[in-house]
Amino acid sequence: MSSVSPEVSKRRTFAIISHPDAGKTTITEKVLLFGNAIQRAGTVKGRGSNQHAKSDWMEMEKERGISVTTSVMQFPFNDCLVNLLDTPGHEDFSEDTYRTLTAVDSCLMVIDAAKGVEDRTRKLMEVTRLRDTPIVTFMNKLDREVRDPMEVMDEVENELKIACAPITWPIGCGKGFKGVYHIHREETILYQSGLGHTIQEVRVIKGLDNPELDVAIGDDLAAQLRDELELVLGASNEFDHELFLQGKLTPVFFGTALGNFGVDHFLDGLTEWAPSPLPRQSEEREVVADEENFSGFVFKIQANMDPKHRDRIAFMRIVSGKYSQGMKMNHVRLGKTVSISDAVTFMAGDRERAADAYAGDIIGLHNHGTIQIGDTFTQGEKLKFSGIPNFAPELFRRIRLRDPLKQKQLLKGLVQLSEEGAVQVFRPLINNDLIVGAVGVLQFDVVVARLKSEYNVDAIYESVNVTTARWVSGKDSKKYEEFKRKCEPNLALDGGDNLTYIAPSRVNLNLSMERHPDITFHQTREH
Ligand code: G4P
């Protein structure tokens, strides 16, 4: 126990993983409703109106209706303080999502019960596996005709290799959706349609054999429910907290986000069972959340969240200890001590000045270009948190100015955007080209839009003969120098001045790798 333990143990920090359209935005909205962060659902993202999710901030996102960036929402629930980290829905921004998943301690997996396990959920589950993140599951859209719940659970077990333990069980679906039976509380919670914008007054019937149940949902459905539950309880796993914490078993809840039904059930589960802030590995040692001394790492940098504040915010996950206003921190990479007087928190979706924040919380630091993704901050100890990846881009374009006088602005903008992890920029050693590398196509559009709005430069793309890139390093300095000389036409510096091999084709890359066995070609670069 330390002085920060009571606060730290209240924290639950999670993200939602799902396939686009499964209902992540709708769920976020309802979660905020329960967290008293908003009064009425529909204020987060009024589809068909001019309102948009608080988590969407760029004009482009609004136009395209996709969430390009990550933001953070903090709210109280039960006796906990919950941090929900939003992740971009579009797969072109998966790098952002991967890094955000390094900053959470658990995930909510949302599945469209009509569709079952979809592609992007599969990929994101692979990422959560890297750290065995505990997963809570919500089967959504029970107000529609969905697939047999048992079948969908089987699919989750087989495809995602995680055992399912139903905590609630649905009664009917579509127009005939009556609610759920809560297996742990041994009660039926009845659903009423059309009340999705508010927190519903629900009717609860205690006990499975209660004759009231027959009256409420009809004799036939009640009998069917009793039969089904006997089968389900026999055939499925019981909830096991240890296995859940190891990421091997997921508690499963059913409901409808649109109808705001079932959301509080999984929030109860999440606050009760999900871990409080977990330790993080640094290159030097493991750092535990309730250590007295403050430490944290930056997983995301974002610009221009609020048009009124044209600044850039570095999102830091606090790993241990406590942040208080005005405290001094050591920016480890630069070896500098900085005084942080105006960090922001994300209570209720609005930015507020953070008075205190604890391990598990996310704070935003105003960044004037000195902070990079992956940077560690401490109270003096030399630590470097590990495992925050940069992926080699797969798409490349040369970027060119319409107005050649703004070359300096363009370079500045590109380097800053690459520090944020939005894209990567490469400057070939042999010419003055600027090559932008991205993991997904949409990132290119974002860069041009942001260059225009934030740096006032008008840029266009041209195709370039690069198909893949690898960061290079070599232990033997003589061989490294020889490699640099021979391969100069294919070498470039990235935004952080790291040497990169940019290859016109896979064949070319493979040949170079064969020819220079003493050089290491890295597919990811740790920040
Ligand atoms: P996403 O962020 O995961 O992409 O999903 P989002 O919440 O935007 O939901 C995708 C669509 O699914 C939306 O419909 C939303 O209204 C709908 N939806 C979400 N949860 C439920 C649910 O429990 N039941 C039903 N029936 N639908 C649900 P849309 O057509 O894109 O928007 P709208 O025109 O319906 O507003």
From TrEMBL:
It is found in: Cytoplasm. One of its GO terms (cellular component) is cytosol. Pfam families: EF-G_D2 (PF22042), GTP_EFTU (PF00009), RF3_C (PF16658). It comes from the Bacteria. GTP binds at residues 18-25, 86-90, 140-143. The lineage of its organism: Bacteria, Pseudomonadati, Pseudomonadota, Gammaproteobacteria, Alteromonadales. It comes from Pseudoalteromonas tunicata D2. The keyword Amino-acid biosynthesis does not apply. The keyword GTP-binding applies. Increases the formation of ribosomal termination complexes and stimulates activities of RF-1 and RF-2. It binds guanine nucleotides and has strong preference for UGA stop codons. It may interact directly with the ribosome. The stimulation of RF-1 and RF-2 is significantly reduced by GTP and GDP, but not by GMP. HAMAP family: Rel_fac_3. This is Peptide chain release factor 3. NCBIfam families: prfC (TIGR00503), PRK00741.1 (NF001964), small_GTP (TIGR00231). Keywords: Cytoplasm, GTP-binding, Nucleotide-binding, Protein biosynthesis. Residues 9-278 form the Tr-type G domain. Belongs to the TRAFAC class translation factor GTPase superfamily. Classic translation factor GTPase family. PrfC subfamily. Its main location: cytoplasm. One of its GO terms (molecular function) is guanosine tetraphosphate binding. The gene is prfC. One of its GO terms (biological process) is regulation of translational termination.
